[in-house]
Amino acid sequence: MFRDRYKHMCDRVHPDNDLIDHVLRSTRHGKRKRNTKVTFFRKPVIAVLSICLCIFIAVPALAATVDPIYDLIYLVSPGAAQFFIPVHKSDEDNGIEMKVVSAYIHGNRAEIYIAMRDLTGDRIDDTIDLFDSYSIHRPFDSSAWCRRVEYDESTKTATFLITIDEWGHKKIEGDKITLSVKEFLSRKTFYEDINIPIDFSSIAEADTMENMYMTGWGAVNEDDIPEHMTALMPSGPMPAFPVDGIDMTAIGYVDGMLHIQIAVNNNLETDNHGSVYFKNADGDIIEEKYHFYFIDQSEQSGRIDYCEYVFDIQQGQMGDYSLYGDFVTSGMRTEGNWRVTFPLEQSE
Amino acid sequence: MKPQSLRTDDCLEKAIRFYADMVYRLAFARTGTRHDADEIFQEVFMRYIRKQPRFENEAHRKAWLIKVTINCSKKLWSSAWRRKTEPLDEAIPFETKEDIDLYHELRQLPPKYREVIHLFYYEDMPLAEISRVLHRKNATVRTQLTRARALLKDLLKEDYDV
After folding, report:
1. CA A235 to CA A238: how far, in whole Å?
2. Are residues A208 and A309 in the same domain?
3. Which residues in chain A have Cβ-Cβ distances shorter than 8 Å to B77?
């Protein structure tokens, strides 16, 4: 089990006795100094010296190109900032410019800063999401993640750090590498802790469906996930559901457990998603026991993604609870074909 | 007055010794280096000594120390110029291949995921408590844990059941 292995690893980690003793001495003698090796100067002096070192000695990459983006790189990736190599190659499509600002390729990992800028409108905002549409063109499988590190309102430019790990610890090799992005989402709306008005007094055992294609599941405690999961038969959207782009399509009891089903049409184009939970009169949150995702395989136009939340709340207790949810919906999806090929320079 | 003062100091010492491993391991889990964990460890307990906050119970004290550890980690993360002066390679405190491999795989996770993983799997804190301590929405913590598990499953493959 991962928990056991993780605990075994962490149990090996201890602070040095000298470190503990230093802190304890502070309690006895009222010392307030930290055990740093540089104690001869006041902090501003250290800061000035360090900045001078950064500018004049430590960072050859900065000497090549002075760009505000490097302030950001130092902020986001302080330990590795000096290894990032400037790229400054861009591609434009659909009125959007994608610029590869800087890259750090080491071993099987590629870390790439890119900037997306709208040249013609305001499709890029501070909610932009690359929607997992980025990739490096390599013949091997990889895992990747991306985070938006800055949004500049004045230039409508969003900067991302994309990290891609090639599986199998294979070193990324070759003369050049190509990064592509195919789409992004923006104009998102965030619904947080909103009440979902439902009359729970008439909730009863509900019809279930036989033919569904399960796409995933999860739980706070994985032991709560049953071997066989049964979904409610979807119905029409609940009229009073307060989120545009997400529907509540069924609610009812199955084998004594309360199921609540939400659905998203054409989710591969929107990434609308959310979760529901209950609160009692004191505001305490009651989580679901487990949830699962599925696609309805019955005849219909377009794909509908369902997520069903299962709560261990009995019918007689329902008067004590209110339903709440957190949701995110996207207002715009922009497609394009942005590709930048740049020289591959391994830093190790 | 002196006995009161001494008793207070005794409490501080006991608390520091009791929570030393917890603070250090959380700092190490989030930063991945002993050097950074050392810095954070000192900063957390210096704040503790300086402020000597009053706690309603031990759970409150533990939550305060976890929160301050996370805050100090973030502060260290943002002080870019300091970290560049440190060597990139340092000895890691692990001896077995399994521990070393797991350490390297975990370092591939974003820090915010590593802290949630640590609190959930090591400190055995339920999601509601993590949410309360980190001042994050319950759904946010749950999403972070789910994403962290998904990333770990990719990274660890069939090695462990996450």
Report:
1. 9
2. yes
3. 78
Contact between B138 and A7 using a beta-carbon 8 Å cutoff? no
Give tens-digit pLDDT for A260-305: 999 998 887 888 988 899 998 888 888 888 988 888 755 566 788 8
Q: Which pLDDT belongs to residue A302?
A: 73
The pTM score is 0.55
Same domain, A204 and A277: yes
CA A229 from centroid of its chain's CA atoms: 27
pLDDT, averaged in runs of 10, over chain B (162 residues):
35 84 93 86 86 79 90 66 44 80 86 90 89 83 86 73 62
Residues A215 and A299 in one domain: yes
Same-domain check for residues A46 and A75: yes
Closest to B162 (Cβ–Cβ): which among A2, A8, A13?
A2
Domain end call among A40, A67, A84: A84
Q: Indicate whether A254 and A313 sit together in one domain.
A: yes
The parent domain of residue A132 ranges over 90-188+333-343
Same domain, A74 and A158: no
List, for residues A294-340, the tens digit of each pLDDT value: 887 555 667 888 999 999 999 888 888 999 999 999 999 999 999 99
**Which residues of B are less than 8 Å from A293 in CB distance?**
none
Contact list, B146 vs chain A (CB under 8 Å): 218
- The verdict on A303 and A216 lying in the same domain is yes
Closest residue of chain A to B81, computed from CA coordinates: A50
Residues A62 and A128 in one domain: no
Record: contact B13-A26, CB cut-off 8 A: no
Task: Choose one of A25, A50, A84: the last residue of a domain.
Answer: A84
| Record: contact A193-B41, CB cut-off 8 A | no
Question: Residues 40-69, chain B: which have Cβ within 8 Å of A?
Answer: 41-43, 45-46, 49-50
pLDDT value of residue A300: 61
Please compute the mean of the pLDDT values over residues A151-164 and round it to a whole number.
90
Two tokens, residue B142: 């749950």
| Cβ contacts of B99 on chain A, cutoff 8 Å | 8-9, 12
Q: Give the mutation candidate from A2, A32, A54, A291 for the B interface (greatest B CB count, under 10 A).
A: A2
